[in-house]
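Bench notes, afternoon.
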Amino acid sequence: MSTAVAADLDQAGSVSPRPSRLDAVRKQMFIEFCAALESHDIPYVILAGHRDYPERIASDIDFMVCERDFARLPAILSAPECVSGAQIVQILEHEISARYFVLARQEGGRIAYLHPDSAASYRFDARLWLRSESVLATRRRSPGGFWIPAAAVEFEYYLFKRVEKKCVELRHLQQLGNLLNEDASGCRESLRRMFPAELVQEVASAVARTDVDWFRTRQDALARWLRAGVPRESMPCRMRSRAQECLRIFRRVTNPTGFIVAILGPDGSGKTTVIEHIEKEFACAFRGVRRFHLRPHFGRTAGGTTVSDPHAQEPRGRLASCLKIGMFVADYWSSWLRQVMPSKIRSTLIVFDRYYHDLLVDRRRYRLPERFALPRWISPLIPQPDLWLVLDAPAEKLVARKGEISLESARSLTAAYAALAHRLPNAVIIDSGTSVEQTMQAAVCAVRERLGVRAQSTLRRLL
């Protein structure tokens, strides 16, 4: 982060509403979400983790509807009146009958999220474990006004998820213990459906005494018992589920849910500040975040020292420059196939701090000769990000923030980056010469809108 940008950030204080404000927005989003389901006559239950709803919503909202209503959800959740001011920015089909939505509502430079994770029956590994009809038949009103399942049903669902993920912590056992105390006989009946008879009492006792170590030492065995359980669907249904699962995986590979954004701009334009803010704000819409500097470095962590005056060194010769460009091409394509695309398929936000196209603008930084056309000829062959953010600031501010460049160089770079932005597809120019709060708001808006456009494309396929 440059000194001037850091100073602006300190003066601005927080670039967003207080966290309590986002909590209040999230609460209202949840209330509107539940109201939308009821207004469309969709019976639903929130399966687990709802004890503090709607005051505190710390994770995904796992909810279940019937098979028929599951197909209606994309149209309902994408309607503007469903959750006011929010839009869908991410859709993940993580099971054949489960779909994860991310609703985002921008508040200044921050985003309030709601993560409805829908299921029509509960399937895992192409096998049916909980039928939506039987779950919905047990539903009851919670003190918060939304619908929840019977204690025994919630116990079975929550225990299955924790064992399947091989992650049973104290807080999970405390929640399971509360459900066991509420309906001991019903929860034990659920255990008999999940595990052999000789294991039922052991599991119930371990839950009752919140014995984390017992579950930790037996997590692999418990997971095997679940997978070896009696099938709850006929063989033809299971074969059809397997085929649907293969199709789902194919769609995930051909339409990856990750997102690649490249941040360009001259030194002093605030790239580091923008990148850190984007990573923080959009981490909740993805399963991971990765950052690369200029190029992927063949999957290795980029090393080297910070160069205080990148324009001080003399250009290389043409042969050395050709070899450098060849190395860049090999790096981008090799790493794209081995690192970048697999991460994108796994729903990762990938941020590039600079990109190959910097070579077209700031030749002196990369020691390229003048009137050297090879980088421009090669640029169409380089894999492209989903979004370009090009930061633009007055030359005088760039010089004030980065004193090692001259005013003339700053003006030249500013004009060159602006011209590049107009040639690139999906490029947005961000005015970073304003306050930090305004810059962050514009950057967040650009990413959010692009994610929204992509989500609309997915919705058209689902509708």
